[in-house]
Each structure stands twice: as structure tokens, then as C-alpha cells.
Specification:
0% strand, Solute carrier family 66 member 2, transmembrane helix, PQ-loop_rpt, membrane
Length: 241
């Protein structure tokens, strides 16, 4: 009888572990669903900072190479792949909306090598080129120094440092606009819930210290953005969708 009870408990824990892993893999992409829908509905991408995509693309590409040097939980690796695809989808939508709303015929491309328009390019292909070039650069450097433990740890620290800054571009854009118009509050609430969950996950699974620091910083930035929502007022300027 006791053996059967222990087996049931073990099965339950296994199921919970699989569920938690599933949430870790796909949960990070969920907050962008309401923002994606908001941009589609309004045909306006100005309220969403595409530099959030830049931060997450860099962070997750670096995290993949960190995994090559120091294998951590597989769900965290898969999460990076899902997040890269999600950010590319967000960029594709923003580029499409901006292209349809563009009044000026002047376009900016990555090949212009003009830093004034970095990450403000006119074509989605430019963002793909950047990601491809950055990935090649990371691959070259990583495989060159893969056996150097200090480099691997530094790579992991850089990855989580960028990820920790996830909400910073949105925070700064809200501050500069003195408004949160066009930003999905649901997205930020889901950010906060997700960051609390994953930080707890990191603690339970004794993930590398870099991940714990990342989670804590992200929660603080999420709270700061929510304070902006309250400060600027939930009037007609704010879309809850």
C-alpha cells in the first residue's frame, strides 16, 4: 500500500515537473500575444519598443551558446529558441505595420551602416541579416574560446544581463512619451507573473547564479513599468488589450 502511494506521489511530481518545464519553454512567449493583437487591431506599433526584441534576441542567442559551453536545463535552451522565433514574429508584424503607414519614401537599411538608424530599419530582412551576422560572430568566438571556463561564465553573465534588461527599452519609451499609450498592460502583467514563476523555478532547480540575478532584476523593472501605468493614469491613453 505504501509502495503504491509512493509511486503515485512520484508520478504526480513527474507530471508537475513536465508541466513546469512546459510553462518555462512557452510561457515567455505568452505575454507578447496581447501586444501582437493590440498592434494588429490598431495598425499602430508606436507604443511597443522594438528594442525589447533586440534585447531578447541578443540575450537568447548568447544563452544558446552559453548552453554549448555549460549545459543547463533543456527547457531553458528550448525557451531561447521559442523566444527568438517570437521576437522575429513581433518584428515582422511591426515592419509590416510601419511599411503600410509610412508616408516618406526614404528607407533605411542595415547595409547603409548608419548608426543613427540602428534597429530602425525599414525591412524585416535587415533584422534577419543582423541576427544571422550576430549568430555567426558568436559562433566563431565561442568555438575559439570554448575550453576557457572564464569565457563561458562571462558568456552566461552577458546573456542574463541582456535578458535582465528586457523591460528597460519599454520603460524608457514610456518615460520619453510620458504615456503608456499603445503598450499592452496585459503584456507587462504577464511579464511580471512569468518572471516571478521563472525566478522561483531557478531557485528550486538550483540554476546558475546568473539566472537568479536576471530574474530578480526583471521583476524590479516590471514593477517600475506598472508604476508608470499608475503614474501616467489609466485613462484614454492606455490600452488594456
Amino acid at each position: 500500500m505504501e509502495q503504491g502511494s509512493e509511486e503515485n506521489m512520484e508520478s504526480s511530481w513527474t507530471l508537475l515537473s513536465w508541466m513546469a518545464s512546459g510553462v518555462m519553454v512557452f510561457g515567455g512567449a505568452v505575454p507578447y500575444v496581447p501586444q501582437y493583437q493590440e498592434i494588429q487591431r490598431t495598425s499602430n506599433a508606436e507604443g511597443f519598443s522594438t528594442r525589447v526584441c533586440l534585447v531578447l534576441l541578443i540575450a537568447n542567442i548568447l544563452r544558446i551558446f552559453f548552453w554549448i559551453g555549460k549545459q543547463f536545463e533543456l527547457p531553458l535552451l528550448l525557451q531561447s529558441v521559442v523566444m527568438i522565433l517570437t521576437m522575429l514574429a513581433m518584428l515582422h508584424l511591426c515592419c509590416s505595420i510601419q511599411s503600410s503607414n509610412r508616408v516618406s519614401t526614404k528607407q533605411h537599411h542595415i547595409t547603409d551602416l548608419d548608426l543613427r538608424y540602428f534597429w530602425s530599419w525599414s525591412s524585416f530582412e535587415d533584422y534577419l541579416m543582423f541576427c544571422f551576422a550576430f549568430t555567426l560572430l558568436c559562433a566563431f568566438i565561442t568555438f575559439l574560446f570554448l575550453d576557457w571556463l572564464l569565457f563561458v561564465e562571462a558568456l552566461g553573465s552577458q546573456a542574463v544581463m541582456f535578458e535582465a534588461m528586457l523591460g528597460l527599452p519599454q520603460l524608457l519609451q514610456n518615460y520619453n512619451n510620458r504615456s503608456t499609450r499603445g503598450m499592452s498592460v496585459k503584456m507587462v502583467l504577464l511579464w511580471t507573473a512569468g518572471d516571478v514563476f521563472k525566478t522561483t523555478y531557478f531557485v528550486i532547480n538550483e540554476s546558475p547564479a546568473q539566472f537568479l540575478v536576471c530574474g530578480a532584476v526583471q521583476i524590479l523593472i516590471d514593477i517600475a513599468i506598472l508604476l508608470q501605468v499608475g503614474y501616467y493614469g489609466q485613462d484614454s491613453r492606455i490600452k488594456l488589450g
